[in-house]
Amino acid sequence: MTRWLVPLALFLAAALAAFWFTLNAVPGMIMGKAMDRISSTAAASGGVLYAPRLREDNQTIVRASPDILYSVCAFDLAAGDLDITVPWPTDGNYASVSFYDARTNNFAVISDREAEGALTQLRLSLHSPGDGPGTTIQAPTPQGLALYRRVIDAETDLDAADAERRAFTCTPLSGT
Q1: How far is Cα 47 from Cα 101, in angstroms, rounded to an integer?
Q2: Element (H, E) at 145
Q3: Structure pTM?
Q4: At 125, which helix (H) or strand (E)?
Q5: Residue 166 contacts by C-beta under 8 Å, 6 or more apart in sequence?
Q6: Average pLDDT over residues 105-119
Q7: Mean per-residue pLDDT of the chain
Q8: What pLDDT score does 63 carry?
Q9: SS3 label, residue 69
Q10: DSSP class of residue 95?
Q11: What CATH number was assigned to the domain covering residues 29-172?
Q12: Residue 90 pLDDT > 70, yes or no?
């Protein structure tokens, strides 16, 4: 009986180590690669990557929807807060901005259904929400992604929708 206990204990220890690694290390590595790729591509457009409309031949994300226009910015709050401008569709279609931390966890979502007006000003911060203007969202990690999605349909004027979504900006605030 004891001759099986040592291999069984080694197997359980290896299984637990693999489980821990999968849950704790892999998401951070994946998000780190995604943020590096987005940051390098988005640098030319002021920090936001405005992805082209997805088709079968240009998808970089598995199963991304061709009925959604995507914009994304990688953020690093180590140097200070981030001012985010979120445009909402004027044609009644749905839009949202989702925030993901460095471990791929979604920590906040705001949609046009709960927003008032054509634009929403947000401040993304590592600190507790203050009494300043607009909405402050507290990020759990210094790095992460802000993903803006805007639904389009057959009646949507693509040029107008693209122009609207390009009002999505992520601007670092100095001295915060």
Answers
A1: 17
A2: strand 143-151
A3: 0.75
A4: strand 119-125
A5: 50, 71
A6: 88
A7: 83
A8: 64
A9: strand
A10: E
A11: 2.60.40
A12: yes
